[in-house]
Amino acid sequence: MKLTKLINENDAIVGVITTVLIIGLMIAVLTVINVSYVPQWVEKEEAKHMELVATQIGKLKSIMDFQSNIDRYTSFTNYVTLGRNEIPFFEPQRTYGSLKIVSNQTTMEIEENGSNTFSFTSGGIQFSFKNNVFVDQTYIIEAGAYILSQSDENGIKGPPPILIESYDGNISIIFINISCMSSRNQIAGIGTYPVFTGVTDIIDHVTYNNVTNITVFTNYPRAWYHVFNNSFRNKLAEYEPGERGYDIIEENNHVQVRFYDPENQYYTVSVREAKISVQIAWGLLG
Length: 286
What we know:
28% of the residues lie in helices and 46% in strands. The chain has 286 residues and is α+β, with helices and mostly antiparallel strands. It is elongated and about 105 Å long. The protein starts with a helix and ends with a strand.
């Protein structure tokens, strides 16, 4: 009887040890997965979501460009996906996004003959995304420019409509003046939401002669530097002492294009102002 009891106790101990080893192995495997693979999965999913959002906002920017170029009062609805669901079991946290329409975000000033200054002011649309692994992103549409901001860096993803008509230098600018259609100017959460844009007014090309400066006041001067640099490069002569040309100056809160001409004729700038109202709907309102 004693021998039989000893064998049964050994079997029980072996079973307990086996169970503990299996649980330990499962914990080790899950730990390896969470440490080594889950962050990669999350980053990949967040990067895919950012690519989707970038395409959606790019489409919104293109629609606004189209609306600003035609002489009709048009309206369109686009969609933007805010947030991303979690990876079941492995990632309990979701990625949230927000959309906000702000007022008086960008001002463009045109200085004529070194004395008269004309101003154009636009609001902006901001799409912000707080990711768990992938770098946080903010997409901005202001005055027709499509901007990407990451931490302290910003760059241009889509320029505003700026046309250099000839080497001698007639400059045509379409300034998209963004405003909020209603008091609903902010939304946040997870899901796909509509963004409605409607043209309220078109002020056709107003011409300014002998323009000495174009200045854009913005929170994203690096992006606007690239806007002007890419628009003017190889189309207008860069500044050389004693010659007609331009130079671009970037400061903390603005970018200025300075024109030079020893004959004081400078350049002609034509501005078409398209006023577009934006409305967002549904979700958690701020």
